Amino acid sequence: MKKLYAFAVAALALFSQPVVAQADLGYYLPKEVTYNPDIPTPKAILGYEVGEWHASHDQLVMFMRQMDQVSDRITMEEYGRTHENRPLYLLTITSPENHKNIQSIKEQHKKLTDPSTSGNLDVKKMPAVLWMGYSVHGNEPSGSNASLLAVYHLAAAQGPEIEKLLSETVILVDPSINPDGMNRFASWVNTHRGKNLVTDPNSEEFSEAWPRGRTNHYWFDLNRDWLPLQHPESKGRLAKFHEWKPNVLTDHHEMGTNATFFFQPGIPSRNHPLTPANNFKLTQKIGGFHAKALDKIGSFYYTEESYDDFYYGKGSTYPDVNGAVGILFEQASSRGHAQESTNGVLSFPFTIRNQFTTTLSTLEAVQNMREELLAHQRDFYKEAAQVARKAPYAAYVFGSEKDKTRAYHLAEIIKQHQIEVYRPKESFKVDNVTYTPENAYIVPTNQPQYKLIEAMFERRTKFQDSLFYDISAWTFPLAFNLEHANMKSLKSSQLGERVTELAMPKGEVIGGKSDYAYVFEWYGYYAPRALNTLFQNSVQARVATDKFSTGDGREFDYGTIMIPVNGQQQNPEQLHQLLTKVAAENGLTIYNMSTGFNPKGIKLGSPMFLPLNQPKIAMLIGGGVNSNDMGEAWHLLDHRFNMTPTMMSLETLNRSGISKYNVLVMADGNYGDISEAGKNKLRSWVQNGGTLVALGGAAKWLADNKIGNMAFKDGAKNDTTRLPYATMSNKNGAQVIGGAIFEANLDLTHPLGYGYYNSKLPVFRDNTYFMEPSKSPFANPLVYTSKPLLSGYISKPNLKQLQNSAAITVSSLGSGKVIAMTDNPNFRAFWYGTNKLFLNSIFFGQLINGGSARAAEDAHE
């Protein structure tokens, strides 16, 4: 005990040192290598040593551009722009001779993925392709800062070893996968750096302001976007990935300050079953090179623990289903320039050195294993082709009878993954659903990307392991809430032309200019955007709270929007021109209504057509609010629907008025920073007519604070059976719902159900908030079914809790409403199928009451 105390005192003495010595270039670079003096060092360009300051993205770009200019080993190209308009660059580094033939090298390399030609290739004569990606999380900066050293080394190192490496390898360097997040973090830590480094973890340097630098502009985790492809960073990167089809891709990250260094493979039982066993073996073999290199510099590390390779939407796992080997690196983070840890003071230069060291060990591994890696890629696609020919399904078909746009957006994603998509040749039925050339797409399974197709379409509910680092299900047709089917056979009469160019579905005004009214259905994905545009142009609109039909037999459902011609600021011609533009931009069909006398259902002058007010939205941010979930809501409204929500901090809520808003959004999170005055303000605002939309933990917080009348179930009873302590982590982890897909039943007559036409709705869930159905028979628009699991993992106790529980309840408070959702309907921006629930809350929450509009009207008779 005395020895431990003495060690602690010594450690504290070490931590109290005001200065951590700055490393020079010699600290990082291998001692046995000489460098070309004509190639400028990082310090010569940046004005400081690597690790002395956190490089901003513009400084990183400045350095890379200079390397491109001075080295004949490097070419650099821009592959995209971030939301904040920062350039994304990919450097191609190889021998000058290879550069002369780079296009033919690329084309030959891609032939490895074509089983019909790959057998003719001699892998002994082909260079391997290595992709090195740095710092997809902006506040994990050791990766991007290590890329400075990596590019300098590859540009300036001299001798036969580097020449041989460059002749046998094409190296692709993505120095900053997340420029917006990188810049946010670098600005924070550099702003709080003193002349003398402070290592106390309580220092503001290590406490980033919300939303922190991990995410991109819209607060998305880009390391989860490799499959969904919702952001320009991912779209541009994936296009280059498939242009090259690398053999190995490295993904440099950081983890907690008190950790050491991790490299893959992860936990063997948590690999996705579609990943071949040889991938794991190759990853292990590459790991031997990392171990040797880290041993040499005295750095501790671990492997085959903690992390997994299951979700294919991560940067280190996506390559595994594309014939490559993805490698995750996780370095303990200094989260600044130097910070105390259980292993002593962890300096920024030390973290950079480990990332650079494993960059070098990766280069060594790829060069030594070149033929193995090339053969693995060839064999992967050969084996996939063999399996595809024997696959249980010949194709997958998906579409939407009443909303072509959602199907279009799914086809758009699939094509970006180099998967062939076709239109049906003619209409046909599967399971009583009709698929037409206009509204459907077919994805044959017999194609090179067979395994990726399976990964995107499969439903999996049985797993080798019950713990997941990320989500356990992501079935895309369910995410888009599309009609879909697995086709056991594919007839020649069913498969039409391959889709080479996708075009957004067209919209139009049917019937020309009206002098009476127009209507459009709410089925279309972009119907809310159309309505918002009308509001922005001061157009009055009403919504149908019952069905009606026209003289030509056309039926209109709940949620149909009606625009009267009279009483508008625009004259009839101007209104027609505006609606023509709105229809075209949003893929909607808008109908001319020449009379209000409908033969069936409500008439256009009925009180069942309720007037709508333009949403004026505030979104609570900061504090303990889940920035991912709020970012997804912000992205949806701003980027996709052209709405202008006000981002309001919890501090602002506490001290300012909110009466100017009629909708307030609370994402999942902890709202403990809201004061008593703030709680009272929220309560009064709802009572005065506001619509409060709360997701996940926010709904639970409102229930706990008596803002609304929601009730949550108690957790499942703990098992008191005595168990080994060593099993505790796995036992508890198995109760986590990391992310799975469940079936819920939707009330199509409820305002939150407008625009849906199938009462069975797939819902994504990644939490254990189980809400009791409201005692009001009209207040439960979405309820989980008795057998809800569609795809993914959930423990039996949690499944029992989820059965028949409420996914959404609506609670009256004065003249306002609290709409509580247990789940996030905007998950990672690709859960198109439930976006409308969120948007309906915003546009139609004002309409919800305890009875019907007609009952309210009858009360005045």
TrEMBL record:
E.C. numbers: 3.4.17.-
Cofactor or coenzyme needed: Zn(2+)
Location of the Peptidase M14 domain: 53-373
GO molecular function term, any single one: carboxypeptidase activity
Pfam family membership, one: Peptidase_M14
UniProt-annotated catalytic positions: E330 (proton donor/acceptor)
Signal peptide limits: 1-21
Protein name, per record: M14 metallopeptidase family protein
Organism: Pontibacter ruber
